[in-house]
Amino acid sequence: MDAHDLFKKLSVGTKFDMKRFRTDAQRFQFAKRPKERETVKVKIEKEDDDCLEPTKRLKLEDANEKQIEIRDTEETINALTLISGITVPQDGSKIKIKKQKKAMTEQKIMQLEQEKINQTRNQNRISVVGRHAPPPIESFSQLSTVHNVAQDLIQNLKTCGYEQPTPIQMQAIPIMLQNRQLLACAPTGSGKTAAFLLPIIHHLGGPQKKGFRAVVVCPTRELAKQTYRECVRLSEGRDFRIHIISKINQALTKYGPNSSQKYDILITTPNRLVFLLNQEPPAISLSNVEWLIVDEADKLFEDGVRGFRDQLDQISLACTNSNLRRAMFSATNTPAVTKWCRHNLKGLINVTVGQRNAATELVEQELLFVGNERGKLVAFRNIIQKGMSPPVLVFVQSKERAQELFNELIYDGINVDVIHADRTQTQRDNVVRCFREGKIWVLICTELMGRGIDFKGVNLVINYDFPPSAISYIHRIGRTGRAGHKGKALTFFTQEDTANLRSIAAIMRESGCEVPEYMLAMKKHSKKEKRKMEREAPKRDSISTIPTYEKQRREKQKKRREGSNRAKESQTVESNGDRIKENTGNKSESLTNIKKKKTSRIGQQIKKAGTRVGGSFSKTLKTNQKSISTKKVKQLKTTIKSAKKRTNINDENK
C-alpha cells in the first residue's frame, strides 16, 4: 500500500473547500481534471473494393476499443473507490441512492383511506363523534354500489331536485342505512328531511300489515304536512300507506285495535299522538315502530308550556319494539338534547355540519335601529316605498301584534295576510298555499312559522319584533337562503332590545357579516336571565295607530252586535220550540178525532148489522166492537208517545 492509497482511506468522510483549495484538490486527485479528448483518426486508403471493407472494420473496431478504455479511465479518475465497490465522487457531491418501493401493508391502506375520509369531511365542514362511523358518500350513485339502495329511490331523489348530496346527506344517510342511532345538527335549508326519509323508506322495503313501523314527530302541523308531501314524493312507486293525523275523530276509529293495520309511516305532531295514546283502550299502537324520528329536536325537548318534553317521553315509552332506532334532527342544538341522547341512545353518532348554532352564510344579515315601536312601522313603510322583492316574511312576538300589524298594512296597497295559532286549520292551509303560489306578497307570522317550513324563493325576512333568543333568530332567518339560494334578513331593534343584542351580533359576526364593535362589547347575561327572556316576552306598545276613542267606540259596537246576535238566537230558539209544541198538539188532536171517527163508523156498522140479524148476532158484534176499538186506541197511544219524544229531543238540541 503506497502513500496515495493510505491517504485515500484516511480521508474518508472529510470535505474540502473546493473553491479555496482547488489546486491542492487537483494535486491529490480529488477534483476533476480537464478531460483530454482523444480523437481517433482512421485513415482509409483508397484501394480496390475487395480489400476495402475488412480494413475498415479492423480500424473501426480498434477505435471503439480505445474510446471504451478512455471512458473507463475517466470514470475511475472522477470517482474514488474506498471499500470494495463503494465509490465516492471526487468533487464532494452527495450520492443519490434510489429507495426501493416496499409493498403496501393493510394498515397503511387503512390509514390512507381514513385520511381520504377526513379530507372529504373537512372540505364539507362535517364533524363526526362516535365509534366506527361509516364514510360519507360523494354522490348518490354510491348508495346503490355500497349500501344496496334500489335505483327507483335514487331516481325519486333526482326527480325531487337533489342532484348532489348536501353535507348532512353525505354523512347522515350512510349512518342510518347501517341502523345506527343519530343526533344531527345542520344549517337551515340543507336537506335534513330527505336525509332521514330515504333510509326509512329503504329499511321498510314495502307495505306490510303490521301497523305503523316508522313515526316522524314534528312541532307544528304545517311542518308535518310539508314532511308528508316530501315522503309521498320520495316513496313514489312503493305503495306505502303514509298517514298524517289531521282530524282526531277520524283517527279514533281509523287506527284503533280493531282496525285493519294497513298503514306504514305516521307523520304527526306530539299532542295529537299523545291524545290517541291516552284513550282507554289506546286508539293507536306503536309496538311495531322500528324508527322514531324527532324533527326540530331542540324545540320538542323544551320544558314548560311551549315545549313538548313530557309528550315526547310518553311517545318514546309507547314504542316498545326491541329493534327501535331513534334519530334527532335540528338546525340548532342545546346541551339538554346532547346529554339526553348520550345517556339514552346506545351507539350514538353525533354529526354536526359547520359550526353549531350558527346562521347560514347565504343570508345577508343587517341590524336596523328604529328608536321605539312607532319607528318600526315608519321603517317598514319606507322599505315598501323604496321597493322590495316579494315574497317577504315578517315575524312578530304575539298573535295580537300580528293582527294589529295586518290591520295597519292591509290598506297600504300590498297583498298581505297573517297566520297564527288562533286561525282555523283551513284558514292556515289556504294562507300557506296562497303564499307558495305568489298570491300573497307579505306574510305576517309568529314563531309558528319559524321552524322547518320550506318556502322556496323567500327573498327577505324582517324581524319586526326582536327575537327572544339566538336560537329563535337562527330559525327565523333560516326561512330564506335555502337550497343554495341567497337571501336577506333585516332585524329591527329598539332601546328595550339591548339585552339579546350581543348574542345575535356574535352570530352575525360568525357568519361573516359586519357588526359594530360596541355590540360585541356589551354586557353578558347569565343563563337564568336568558331563560327568563326566552319565556317571558317583553311588554311593547301597541302597533295600531287608531286613537283610543275610536278603539273604545269600536269595542262598544262589537258588544252591541254580540248582544243583539245572542237575543236573536234566543228568540229563534223560543219560536222554534213553540212551533214544535203546536205541531205536537195538532197531531194529538188529529189523532183523537181519527179515533172518534173510526169508533163511530164501527158503531154504525154494528147497528146496521143488528137490525138485519137477531139479538144473538148483535151480542157477538158488540164484543168484536170492543176488541177492535181497544186495538186502535193502543196504536194511537204509541204514535202519540213517539211524537212527544221527538219534540223533547228537538227542544234539547235547540
**N- and C-termini, Cα separation:** 136 Å
Helix vs. strand class: alpha/beta
Strand order of the biggest β-sheet: 3-10-4-9-8-5-7-6
CATH fold-level assignment of the largest domain: Rossmann fold
Coiled coil: 95-122
Pfam family, one: DEAD
Catalytic activity: ATP + H2O = ADP + phosphate + H(+)
Region (Disordered): 524-617
How is the topology of this model organized?
Blueprint: H1 3-10, H2 22-27, H3 49-78, E1 79-83, E2 86-89, H4 106-123, E3 126-129, H5 141-146, H6 151-159, H7 167-177, E4 182-185, H8 192-204, E5 214-217, H9 221-234, E6 242-244, H10 248-254, E7 265-268, H11 270-277, E8 291-295, H12 297-300, H13 309-318, E9 325-330, H14 335-344, E10 349-353, E11 363-371, H15 373-386, E12 392-395, H16 399-409, E13 416-419, H17 425-437, E14 442-445, E15 460-463, H18 470-477, E16 487-494, H19 501-510, H20 517-520, H21 527-535, H22 548-612, H23 615-653
Parallel strand pairs: 4-9, 4-10, 5-7, 5-8, 6-7, 8-9, 11-16, 12-14, 12-15, 13-14, 15-16
Antiparallel strand pairs: 1-2, 3-10
Helix pairs in contact: 7-8, 8-9, 11-13, 22-23
